[in-house]
Amino acid sequence: MRKKNQHAIIYAILAATLYALSSPCAKLLLKVVPVTMMAAFLYLGAGIGMSMVGIMYHITGKPRGEDRLTVKEKPYIIAMILLDILAPILLMIGLSKTTAANASLLNNFEIVATALVAFIIFKEVISKRLWIAILLVTVSCMLLSFEDSSSFSFSYGSLFILMACVCWGFENNCTRKLSKKDPIQIVVIKGLCSGTGSLLIAGIIGETIPKVKFILLILLLGFVAYGLSIYFYVLAQRYLGAAKTSAFYAVAPFLGALLSLVIFQEIPSATFIIAVIIMIIGAYYAATDRSWKEIRKP
Q: Which SS3 state, helix, strand or coil, does residue 222 take?
């Protein structure tokens, strides 16, 4: 079990690393792509890409031993799809109105939302050590967010990103209820259904379809930053639960902000360095938490 727990931690960190690519890359593409179209093709990229992965498993005949989704999971599947339609649209609207680094850091609120929903609604056990980790990550996020007071405020764009995080907090817990099932099937359903829903909304509100080269870039980004990221996230949730997985996922906003600093050539301040140290301490508390009360065997 301990070895599987260690693998789950690696999955959670890998999921965070892949997702970190989304904000800075999407920020660049939003210059030429409408927000809802962006959200749609990101999720379609996840669905199409993971469908191809599933087909390759089928062709090679490699046994996976995964359980398929059933009618019993239907309420969570529907909730997951609806939330995955709303959340990325809100995120893209917010991202279009704030900096990529700021958006990446605000994504840390997803950790808090996920933990609170897991604790209050789904009755997951959260240890004191994990609460400390979440608190430290939140403090780090606040320091980083207020590093540039002229860009960070509870503005129009920031509020949309926070609303997206709340949606993903609920969605993460719905996905937790499905985490014993085939992760590829889960990602395919999330990607294709949510992407199609967003695409219909984009058509209804009159957004123009991007050029083919941009669609291909978004699909690729969606496969890597959403598809593979969600796949590893689901695997991590099997053993860590929603709250603990979200704590390890805290590295995603940091990595996204760091990547944004590189891409947009911004120089980190002393506040940034202090916040990084606090985040490292928070990650240590999460990684060394030994109260595996919320772990479930698949």
A: helix
- Domain extent, residue 259, equals 2-294
**H-state helical runs in the chain:** 2-19, 22-29, 35-60, 74-95, 100-106, 109-120, 128-145, 156-176, 183-204, 212-221, 229-248, 251-263, 270-287
> What mean pLDDT is predicted for residues 92-117?
80
Q: What is the pLDDT of residue 180?
A: 83
- Token representation of residue 4: 């599987």
Residues present in the chain in total: 298
Instruction: Please work out, in degrees rounded to the nearest 5, the angle formed at the alpha carbon of residue 249 by the alpha carbons of 298 and 77.
Output: 50
Mean pLDDT to the nearest integer, 101-105: 74
pTM of the model: 0.79
Q: How many domains does the chain have?
A: 1
CA distance 30 to 32: 5
Could you give the CA distance from residue 21 to residue 27 in angstroms, rounded to a whole number? 10
| Residue 202 confidence (pLDDT) | 96
